[in-house]
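ARCHIVE CARD
SHELF: 3
SLOT: left
DATA:
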Amino acid sequence: MRPDPEQYGWGHQHMAVERTNRDIRTLIGQIADGEIMLPEIQRGYVWRASQVAKLVESMYLGYPAGTLLLWKTDEGAETRAAAIGAGQGLPSVMPLYLLDGQQRLTSLYRVFNDHPTAQIVFNIETEAFQNQSNATLRSPKWVKVYDVVGPDADSFALQMQLRSAGLSIDGAEIGRRLKALESISQRDFHMEVLHGFSYEEVTQIFVRVNSGGRPLKTTDLAMATLSARSPGFLGELEKESARWAERGYRAVDANFLIKAITLSLSISGKRTSSVSRLTTASPESVTEGWERVRRGLERVVPLLCEQLLVPTTALISSVTALHPLIVFYGRLPAGARVDPEVEKGLIYWFLAASGSNRYGGATDSALTQDVNALDSDEPVRALLANLRLDEKGFSVTARDLSGRNIQSPYIMLSYLAAAHSGAEDWWAGGPISITAEGTDKLQYSMLHPAAQLRNHRNKYSSAEINELANIVFVSQQTAKNMIGNHSPAEYIKEVQTGDLAAHAVPTDPRVLEADGFRDFLVARRTLLAERISALLERFRPAFIDAGGASGLRSEAPCKSLVLTGYAAGSRTLLLAEAQAGAQHWVGRIDTAELDAALDAAASGLDSDVTVAGETAPLKVDEDGVTLPVGPFKLRGTAEQWRVALKDAFSDALPAADCPEAESPAWTGEAEEFLLADIGVQRA
């Protein structure tokens, strides 16, 4: 939306910077009333609850809160919605546009308005802050910050309640601490307000200022530039993104679309995937690229949904694999026919690229190579040649599936193998569905429940329990009402034999009890590999010899990485064990530092983490988060890191059992290792 300058009676002003102060309560009121708004060049809200808690703690302790940078203009500006969980009012004065301080102000607004993702609580005894949890809900020591600073706060009643809770501090100290918490709302922010600057100048200021805080990604710079040149364009991107999100393709966000436009530009010379190209491209070529992207999406999403049965991007290991497909279809005229064999071949390449983790690491060079391959007279052959699969093809063996878990790129192939075999849900009936309705959370269950395997006399590891070969794609109703904590020997009697085969579930009685779990994994890997091979055969290009298909992993050197969690009360240890050829390496990773570093990574900030007693840099870039761990540069998305930590501690071992000995610091050249490959041993 663009406010009308005439409505507010503003005239032309000379450029100036006004410096002033304003308290938090006033600023929050201005946000609610629409008197402080976000310009379109702003990025989305990204802070995690732990970062919000740290901000509130800093305010409580009286630490400096930093400066806010705002812009006042009589031009009016395109805006984006603030992530406050409510609409903003229509301002009675010309609004201020927030250039720097969005994360802080949005976080405080959420805390002061009881937003469900900002339930920050305060320990009245220790003066610690954190997000609400089941444990803090049960303890009288924890007070929700909103209950102290919110509009209906009753500090007297709260103080009386705390005094009767048997705390280790007296009533006077309780009152003092509550008063200090309440006074957060009166803390001042220093503000600098820009007057009379043009939108283009403000965009440059925004880029420079934000480069010193959360580093601007190249896509952020491109968005800011496009917004300055074509106000409203980012709104078009977000509208298109929302349209595909309704179809289950939620990863087709503004960043994804910006990258797609870059790849679709008409560029003389060698094509490049660098988004920085957008900052110099002409408005006409950007418009043409945008139209090609929209045309490409109109063909690619139905192709994947209807022919391949991929209902959601949550299933795709790297959505970067969609970009070459979008470029291919986008450059065709609307309604143009594609040879069915070429279409099959493109799907085959997509499966192979996803299964081999083509875009699991640094993506730009691979993406540029693949988009350039589309210029070939035989684009499918050229794409497969980039994977070294143009002659032998792609295959998946039981050995490839060994050690894989839910983060593996084989998750999509396993699901699709079941879907194309006609697998049904065991409780509700009908075709399987990978996600719960309206979410990106994958629906699956363990065939051998963890409760049956933990503490078993065979000493099954967490990695074994969480293997992909122990996962079946059924609804949560099936998981709860049929599987529960029962061994497969009990519940598969209720499943038809044909559907067990479609789900690649072995039926040999010897492997259906907990005692035979390891043999079960061996049998299921074999069945899964056969199903996946049948899926690949559906789309195999005719130029690939059906008998010569072979995976690439047999050519790779032996390497593996296993993360194991150890715990004793609140104390946690994370042990990394790496194998690189004939060399074995063991080291501990400081979990508290890693957790804090991942919080910072969500804001695009690099950090340091102690690994095997040495300081290791955790680096953030457009492709994810990388941490040196012994012989490897361990890389994955922030979400993959969180899942890896959760998996490591889902069945934590006693801290006393954690090996004390650690390997010396790795002095050789570290090679990239993907989080999706954790637990995998290649030979």
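SLOT: right
DATA:
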Amino acid sequence: MGVMGIMVAGTTAKNFTASMNRRMPAGKVLNDGSTMVAAQCSMLLLAVTQFTTKFNGSELSVFDCTSMGTRGLFSAYIAAFITVWVYKFCVSRDLTIKLPKEVPGAIAQNFRDIIPFGGAVIICGIIDVIVRNLMGVPFSELLIKLLSPLFTAAETYPGLILIQAATAFFWFIGVHGPSIVQPGIDPIRLANQAENLQVLLAGGHPAHSLTFNMSLVGEFGGTGATFIVPLLLILFMKSKQLKAVGKASIVPVAFAVNEPLLFGAPMILNPYMLVPFVAAGCVNVSVAKFFIDNVGMNGFSFVVPWATPAPIGIFITTNFQLIALVFVAIIILLDAIIYLPFLKAYDKLLCDQEAERAVELGLESDGAAAIAANAPAPAVEQATASVETTVAAADSEPVADQPEPAADASAKKDVDGLKVLVLCAGAGTSAMLANAIKEGAAQTGENIASSAGAYGQHTAIMDQYDVIVLAPQVRSYYNDMKADTDRLGIKLLAPRGKEYIDLTRDPAGAIKWLRENLD
């Protein structure tokens, strides 16, 4: 945590450089290794304070490294953006040192980077000098002071509720909510969690509630606080559709991968689910703040992976407090109370639809087998279509339509030796389809390799694959991704929500789908 700021400066600059290079003219490419180091140097100027002190009778020059960690994240982002834009300005206008063509490329590149490197560092140095002389604090501390009223407001009950409601609402309309809302507040969430840890180690009570792992509470089992929902579907619903979704999703949801539930029930764009989907997380974070402020539960102090089962993660990151287990039991009960009446109403609708179709088919009133074999529930069809419309509308440009499945000849296309990379937001949902493809390849005897990854971490490895599949939660990146895959000759596929979930459950069908969608 103590060096996170300087690490983020480098990685942000590197990834921003890769994005910028897609828009640079031919032959004018930014050196991502140079921008990475320049951003880290610039970030140190903005965040670190140097001073002298006496030690064992000698005067030493030292620096305060407090802002090299989570407190310096804002400085890290700004240093990275300044650096890459300076490099773009210099390279696109040939403001570089040019050497004769006989000079080896690696050496010549070092000289080409001198002017943009120096420009970025000098600009950040000037900003640092101005801020320190006018305000008496480093740039990183100035940002924290300026934004502290906003962060203070965000840590109130209304602030926490607003953050959680926005996260859930974005997901409800088909856009990955955490990716939209959380990056803007991650610097303060991480800083608060680091501060909680210091207080805990000093023997005090960690009191910050706006922390990185508060997502374990607001997204208890995934966005919408769906941890208890699969069990409710299994135990209390009569619809065969909802019972099947509950059984299929109970294990993934335990590890915060709730897409099988979101697209299978569906929860997304289902008017029956809007209120509980938004309300459950808001109630959870409110109860968490009450427990931290009034009951003595520790604010979250340790960072655990996002896929840690929420009850276990909450227990760990509160330093194994027993009161945390009481808190977990309470929010599970509250979430069940919130969801149950809405699920029952939706269950009644599906049961009526199943009964109507059974009558149409001349079957018994339950007719579950024939219903499943003949058609999906109309409510599911309508919700899936709405998701497709909303996700496409969320893009800056319309997402290109996928090619229609070809005829029988296409279905027989050779996929031997194919390498497939499936991407989602956090490598959880993508692993479900990647595993299905592996299983399908084993069943059909095909030589197909599949891997799962997180969008944003794929740039260094994507050229090793023949096909890239975007999960529904990152489908809005289709147009940006298409520029890279076209350049590398990679096939890009982006199945819709329910289609994706169906493929994860049908290994042989996943192989057939790959054949049908290969040019």
